[in-house]
């Protein structure tokens, strides 16, 4: 005989919690299950670490909209640190990664929320690292929607690194190019040509900043092609990339001419075919 008791407790409107207590012939189901588990020689699996306690003690503003919070930069950075720590802990916990259906999404969301907190705090270095970490679990899902979100995260990571380009170390500068190249590849793979053009233009501007002018011209022309493809081409983007590619090409010719005039012996040998 089953006896079901439902208790409705009002919480913050319009949310309600429904607590169900089920008794089977006067025996508590939890104690029965616990007894059977111990009889079979298994120990009950519990949540490892302090994640459950941390989630209970987490401030209420973590679930609020960013634009409604009005937090100070140090508070935003502290929240980002908490979310980053939780994401890393989840990614390294065997009990959490065993639930594969929602694991990648939950870990990626921790890193994404951390990145947004760092952006509001204007800590671009931490934001770039957070968005880069977000892309990793999304790429593991190997689905078109996850690939597109991962590409957005890679683009955000590269943009954050570019904001600290003057003070960035070699590793941070080196991370920009592969992030943008991977984002371009993911967008083109999923036929999002306008977003691919945006990433390609970002990559061209990065090459120009690094004085890799030939690579910059190539990327600007590739972005022009992406802007012009598809059923709804972006004519303004096409004109912009074509014009900038022409300007950079002129700059290359001027620099080559100045270098040749600075070394007339080399210029004379080149004209004589030596």
- Count the beta strands: 3
The CATH superfamily of the largest domain appears as Tetratricopeptide repeat domain
Beta-strand fraction estimate: 5-15%
The low-confidence parts are 1-65
CATH architecture of the largest domain: Alpha Horseshoe
End-to-end Cα distance: 102 Å
Task: Predict the CATH topology of the largest domain.
Answer: Serine Threonine Protein Phosphatase 5, Tetratricopeptide repeat
DSSP helix fraction = 55-70%
Radius of gyration: 28 Å
Question: What's the helix count?
Answer: 12
**How many domain units?**
2
The average pLDDT is 76
Secondary-structure-based class equals mainly alpha
* SSE succession: EEEHHHHHHHHHHHH
CATH class of the largest domain: Mainly Alpha
Main β sheet profile: 3 strands, antiparallel
Question: How would you describe the overall organization of this protein?
Answer:
With 274 residues, this protein is mostly helical. The protein has 2 domains: 1-44, no CATH class; 71-272, Alpha Horseshoe (Serine Threonine Protein Phosphatase 5, Tetratricopeptide repeat). Helices cover 69% and strands 7% of the residues. The protein has 12 helices and 3 strands; from the N terminus they run βββαααααααααααα. The protein has helices at 29-39, 51-57, 73-91, 94-97, 100-120, 124-141, 144-163, 170-189, 193-209, 213-228, 235-262, 264-272, and strands at 2-10, 16-24, 27-28. A 3-stranded antiparallel β-sheet has the order 1-2-3. A hairpin with a 5-residue loop joins β1 and β2. α10 (213-228) packs antiparallel against α11. The longest helix has 28 residues, at 235-262. Residues 1-65 have low confidence and may be disordered. InterPro entries: NSF_attach, TPR-like_helical_dom_sf. One of its GO terms (cellular component) is SNARE complex. Belongs to the SNAP family. GO terms for molecular function: soluble NSF attachment protein activity; syntaxin binding. Pfam families: SNAP.
């Amino acid at each position: 005989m089953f006896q079901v008791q439902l208790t409705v407790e009002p919480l913050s409107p319009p949310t309600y919690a429904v607590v169900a207590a089920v008794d089977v012939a006067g025996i508590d189901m939890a104690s029965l299950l616990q007894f059977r588990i111990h009889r079979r020689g298994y120990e009950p699996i519990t949540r490892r670490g302090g994640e459950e306690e941390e989630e209970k003690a987490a401030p209420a503003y973590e679930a609020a909209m960013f634009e409604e919070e009005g937090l100070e930069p140090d508070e935003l950075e502290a929240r980002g640190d908490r979310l980053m720590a939780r994401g890393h802990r989840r990614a390294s916990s065997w009990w959490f990664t065993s639930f594969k259906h929602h694991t990648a999404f939950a870990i990626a969301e921790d890193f994404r929320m951390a990145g947004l907190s760092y952006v509001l705090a204007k800590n671009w270095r931490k934001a770039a690292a957070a968005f880069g970490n977000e892309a990793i679990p999304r790429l593991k899902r190997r689905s078109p929607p996850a690939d597109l979100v991962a590409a957005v995260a890679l683009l955000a990571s590269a943009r954050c690194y570019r904001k600290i380009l003057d003070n960035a170390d070699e590793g941070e500068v080196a991370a920009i190019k592969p992030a943008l190249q991977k984002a371009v590849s993911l967008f083109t793979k999923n036929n999002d040509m306008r977003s691919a053009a945006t990433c390609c233009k970002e990559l061209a501007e990065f090459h120009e900043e690094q004085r890799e002018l030939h690579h910059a011209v190539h990327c600007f022309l590739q972005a022009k092609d992406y802007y012009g493809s598809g059923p709804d081409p972006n004519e303004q983007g096409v004109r912009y990339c074509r014009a900038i590619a022409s300007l950079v090409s002129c700059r290359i010719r001027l620099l080559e001419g100045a270098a040749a005039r600075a070394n007339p012996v080399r210029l004379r040998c080149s004209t004589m075919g030596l």
